[in-house]
Amino acid sequence: MIDPTADLLPEGLEDRLPRSAAAATRIERAMLAAMDAHGYDRVRPPLIEFEKSMASRTDGLRTRNMFRFVDPRSLRMLALRSDMTAQVGRIAATGLGAAPRPLRLCYAGQVARMTGDMLDPRRENLQIGAELIGSESAAAAGEIVELAIDALEAAGAQGISVDFTLPDLVDTLAAKEMPLDPAQVQAVRRELDAKDAGGLKAAGGEAYIPLLYATGAFDDAAAKLASLDDGGVLASRIDGLRQIADRIDGRARLTLDPSERHGFEYQTWFGFTIYADGVRSALGRGGTYRIGGSEEVATGFSLYPEELIEAVKAEEPLPQAVFLPLGHDREAAARLRGEGWRTVAALSEGDDAMALGCSHRLEGSAAKPL
Amino acid sequence: MIDPTADLLPEGLEDRLPRSAAAATRIERAMLAAMDAHGYDRVRPPLIEFEKSMASRTDGLRTRNMFRFVDPRSLRMLALRSDMTAQVGRIAATGLGAAPRPLRLCYAGQVARMTGDMLDPRRENLQIGAELIGSESAAAAGEIVELAIDALEAAGAQGISVDFTLPDLVDTLAAKEMPLDPAQVQAVRRELDAKDAGGLKAAGGEAYIPLLYATGAFDDAAAKLASLDDGGVLASRIDGLRQIADRIDGRARLTLDPSERHGFEYQTWFGFTIYADGVRSALGRGGTYRIGGSEEVATGFSLYPEELIEAVKAEEPLPQAVFLPLGHDREAAARLRGEGWRTVAALSEGDDAMALGCSHRLEGSAAKPL
């Protein structure tokens, strides 16, 4: 089917028509409700901020790919948000700087970026997430991973899997057990990301090759990783991962890819990516980090339910509606709405109940099937 | 109290912290639910569009006050939306161009503008509205006014009043009953807007002076207006207003200011502004119009609940939460959440239930008051 709006909207931007909008609204609310149930208060930051403020709050957030423009009031550069995590970090450090810790905040909103990428050409996304501010412990990480699973399940995702990683693995090992020159660290990280044993050897990181095989199903991979850790510098991290895994216990397939760093460049000890059956790309990711500026520790996740919405929108139930003919009993119509019915009122004789999506018609004071 | 975020956000932009965010979310959902109950399907257009497309869809929408920037993909100018009505008009004309009429659509989202004004310094607003596409009849206008009242009542507004106007009044009269040169029309409109009898006389619009007095409580003002309409050119309009007024009957205070045109420059025969007790400015406005480009007739409203949110946020109820001590019964906690409780889990021995806003504590499998 040709989308008649295709040439009317810029590449990577689209309208959500009724079914897709209903699915997005339902999923957004289900996720917010799951986070609320665990004590996470929603905050709503603005669409626009000073570019400098966006940039300083999370090291990982590049403003290069944000839509930017000059503020006619301050003559400073503004940016349209491409990520809400940095905004929530700013709120935690300022407006809620004096609130007791741990501080639990959540958010949902549209974010935009100047260019899409090969994996995802979208330039606007719905971002939904939670931040647990003031802790980066295994307990905090366990709560956050479980909450991400709760939120996805509430939204209807099935067959959830979670892939754990240790973002600062190379730094930790290079400092002690598997020494590397500072110049080598970058190269070793790069070859680990590329899963290239030959490249690792060439980069002087031969000792790191076994890490390439400490991946896969969580229990096995964690055992392999532990067996490589002669000096025990990873012991607290592996123990933390096991605590998180115990907590998830059967609610999701768990895997470990301890040297995966792509997308986790600015996390501290723990990171995770989350997937669901029937959805090709990752639905979100999270981990432990430090808030830029305040340097407070935090743990959180961001979900991007776009593909989940696409996957379910065809089955999104349409509301049953009662057609209200001209001159209908208006009190009866109001009563039906109060009972949860949707009503569609005739404006003229020509209005067609079936064409307008009605399954019933108000006759007297009762809804009769069409 | 000094807002510690004040210097961190650009003028006219602000964070909603938890209470304000909760009020905004509750009000947004209540309004969407009211519109859904009357058969209005939500659509979700993107934050950004081609500037040209935004400009062409409603005559009244000036892109001058929109944040604009060059699209690196198309090299065309994009604009951040300052109004969603134009977007819904585009959807009605394109993606839903083939959907049966009347077409009922609603929306809720953030809009932004480059500069605020004296009455409202905000540069970002929550806009919520409904569009009834394919009709501008008195029946359509009655449904739309009643729906705006329903939506505001659902959001908790009290003491609603609605001010009607006839945006094309001068054009209608000038064409027949009170003839004016095309050059005089502008001046007469301006002096009517200024409520300046002397100015009207000077502009050659002496015949229009009585219109200044056909204002106030609806029934009286409508009767005065009808008495001025010797030739009956306003008869169908006055009859339409009376049909709408009959329908509202007691649900809102009704007034008429037939020559009020400010903000209704691009409406057709009917316009209205809506207010509530305790809220200084108008909460929204609406009326009949033609969709730019397709020229299809439509009737709709936009609400800006910002001040309503501010008015209620202090009383926004905080959820009761149950503190979950370390080592708590996790099934009992999940069961409490299933029953609608909010839980807050301890991450360490130091976590303070009261400071974290809890009213109860999980002991065994039961929530006990603190």
Taking Cα atoms only, what radius of gyration of chain A do you get, to the nearest Å?
25 Å
Q: Remind me, CATH topology of the largest domain in chain A? A: BirA Bifunctional Protein, domain 2
How is the quaternary structure best described?
homodimer
Strand order of the largest sheet of chain A: 1-5-6-12-11-10-7-9-8
Mean pLDDT of chain A: 93
Poorly predicted parts of chain A: 1-6
H-E order of chain A: HEEHEEHEEHEHHHEHHEEEEHEHEEE
| Number of E-type strands of chain A | 16
**Percent of residues in β-strands of chain A:** 15-25%
**Count of helical segments of chain A?**
11
State the largest interface: A-B, 85 and 85 residues
Name of the level-1 CATH class of the largest domain in chain A: Alpha Beta
